[in-house]
Structures are given as structure tokens and as C-alpha cells.
Amino acid sequence: MKEFILEKLICPSCIPIENPLRLKNTLREGDDIVSGILRCRSCGKEYPIKDGVAVVLKDNSLTESDMKFRYETRRMLSFYLWAHYSDLWGDEGNDIYYILKSLIQDTKGPFLDTGCAVGRLTMEMSDRAETSIGIDISFTFIKKARELMLNGGQEAEIPIEGELMERHYFKIKPEWKTDKVEFIVADAERIPFKEGSFSCASSMNLIDRLKHPILHLKELSRILNPVNGELLISDPFSWDPDIAEKDEWLGGKHSGRFSGSSEENLKAIIMGKGGLLSPPFSLKSEGNAWWKIRNHQRHYELINSYYLLAIR
Ligand SMILES: C[S@@+](CC[C@H](N)C(=O)[O-])C[C@H]1O[C@@H](n2cnc3c(N)ncnc32)[C@H](O)[C@@H]1O
User: Fold this and answer.
1) Residue of 136, 158, 176, 255 with fewest CB within 10 Å of its CB?
2) d(CA 267, CA 149)
């Protein structure tokens, strides 16, 4: 963990009260804190830094029940390494990361990428933002993203078919400023950063993977600057009752709270409907973008995400 992140960190268990974390028992390798403890000055709860990865979750058992999050598996890691970085070894990749980055031209302050997976958008934003931080609930993804950040290159094991795999080595782009990048394990529904500490935040293809999407939107609103804060959201709205109860969905249902179109409901919430997000945002741009996940050489998932950029 890089030290610059510490001034923004707060205890996730104490939210909405914002209590800072104190660093202790640290072991460093150069600028990187490879192990240590982050301790809440108020409630005393401790959060570990293991293998350089800070795990700042209210419920640390979340990482122990890892396998219940399918994103911890080797298969999911290879799917996302392909989706995020395959263009860097000459495969087709996904241009959604460029499309979304191009929307946030003016951002110069700190950037937060929630549900960052293996970190492509976080990395992309490092040549523009003051600092670029990625959070994800998957320890496996964050560890891989950090290895790429530290080593400047990484090996990806990609399925061909069955148990046959191919290996690709890829390098980060020269313009990425990895000294400004950091990744931590954190929950997008309980973001462990001080209010107003980011000028821009993204939630890319995450909303429909959460138990409480509204809580996530409120957290994004809290950590964003109340003046000129920019919010970038994309999602395919693949609502799934195994992930979130229907009452929590932001659309895609006939009746109840947020019935009808997710896209329209999301825009209304962001623009202040029901006073859920305050101060409200105004819509700057919106559209649709395709992205692909490769399962193996003859099987891809093709997803069309709605996206919007909104500003305060
Ligand atoms: C569909 S993937 C999208 C990844 C990436 N943003 C992209 O668009 O390529 C969803 C990601 O959200 C992460 N995730 C799921 N629940 C989360 C939570 N509560 N907090 C933070 N990340 C979460 C998963 O581990 C996974 O990396």
C-alpha cells in the first residue's frame, strides 16, 4: 500500500461517522508498505495489509468466504485479464475503457474507480488524474492489479478450451503513471474514504452486482466533491435475484420502488429525485457501449452497457 492513500482513509465500520485509520506494525519495501495493520482510532477495529494489499472491509470474513464471490476464481481472473488488457498483447480487447475515459476529459483531481477488477480504467486515468485509486471486493483481482502496477508487466493465463491454456506477457503503457495509482480491497457499499475526497468517481458495470445499489450511489455521492464532482456510471442492468432482492433493483420490474426502466430511474436519482443524492448532479452525457468477456477461444459474452456522466 502506498502511503499517499492514508490521508483519505477512514474506518468502514464507523461510516457514516468518519474516523481516520492509524498505521502500525509496518514492513516496507521501498515506498510500498507490504504488511501492517490499519487501526481505527475510535472503534479500535483493525484492517490488515497483506502482500501489500490493504483489506479495508467492515466484515473481514468477506475475504474468507471468498469463493462465494465468483470473482475470486482463477477462471474469473483470466476472463478479466483478457477483457482489460488483451489489446496490450495484440488481441482485440475492449474499447469501452477508452470511451469512458474520453468522457472525463477535464478531470485533474483525485479519481476513484469502484469495482475496478484488475484495474484498466484506474490505470488509464493515471495520466490525467492527480491520483487514481481502484477498489474492489476481490482480493485476487486487487493483488493482480497491484503486481501489474509494481512490475510494469504481467503474465495472463487465458483459456483456449477445456484445460488448455495459453500464456501472454503484457506490459503497461508508457504513459501510465503508476506512482499515482493504488488499489485496495474495499466495499463499494461502504467506501472507506473521507467525504468530498475525490473530484471524479466511476462505477463501471458494478451496480447490478451489488446487494444494495442505492447504498452504493449514496456512498459515491458522499466521497465526491460537492462542487464540480463528476460521476461516471455504466451498467447493463442484468438484475439477478441471487445477488440483490428485487426490492433493491433500480428498475426492470413492473411495480414497487423503482419500477420501469433502470436507465430512467438512475438518471432521476442522480438528478435529485427523492433527495437521495445531495447535492444533485446534472447530466453531461449518456450513451451505450459494447464490451466483451472471453470465456474461451470460441465463447464470448457480449454486453451492451448504458453509460452516463453527470456533474455537480
Ligand atoms: C462486472 S465486473 C466489472 C469490472 C470492471 N469495472 C469492468 O467494467 O471491467 C464487477 C466487479 O465488481 C466487483 N464487486 C462486486 N461486488 C463488489 C462490492 N460490493 N464492492 C466492490 N467491488 C465489488 C467484482 O469483484 C468485479 O470486479
Assistant:
1) 255
2) 34
Find, among 265, 264, 247, the residue nearest to 256 by Cα: 247
Q: Tell me the CA–centroid distance for residue 163 and ligand 1, in Å.
A: 26
- pLDDT tens, residue by residue, 50-67: 999 999 999 876 555 445
Phi, psi (degrees; rounded to nearest 5) at 51: 50, 35
Q: Output the CA 297–ligand 1 centroid distance in Å.
A: 23
Percent of the chain that is helix, strand, coil (3-state, to 5): 30, 35, 35
For 67-311, which CATH superfamily applies? Answer: Vaccinia Virus protein VP39 (3.40.50.150)
The CA distance from 248 to 21, in Å, is: 31
CA-nearest residue, atom 13 of ligand 1: 115
Cβ distance 23 to 37 under 8 Å?
Answer: yes
Ligand 1 pocket, Cβ-based, cut-off 6 angstroms? 71, 83, 115-117, 135-138, 141, 187-189, 204-206, 209-210
Q: Taking the complete model, does pTM exceed 0.70, yes or no? A: yes
Check if the beta carbon of residue 200 is closer than 8 Å to that of residue 230: yes
Choosing from 209, 234, 294 the residue with most ligand 1 atoms within 8 A of its CB, the one to mutate for a pocket test is: 209
Helical H segments across 44-166, by residue range: 61-64, 74-85, 96-103, 120-124, 139-151
Please report the beta strands in 236-277, taking only residues with DSSP state E, as ranges in sequence order: none
Could you tell me how far CA 76 lies from the centroid of its own chain?
A: 16
Cα(22) to centroid(ligand 1), Å: 27
The mean pLDDT value for 196-224 works out to 98
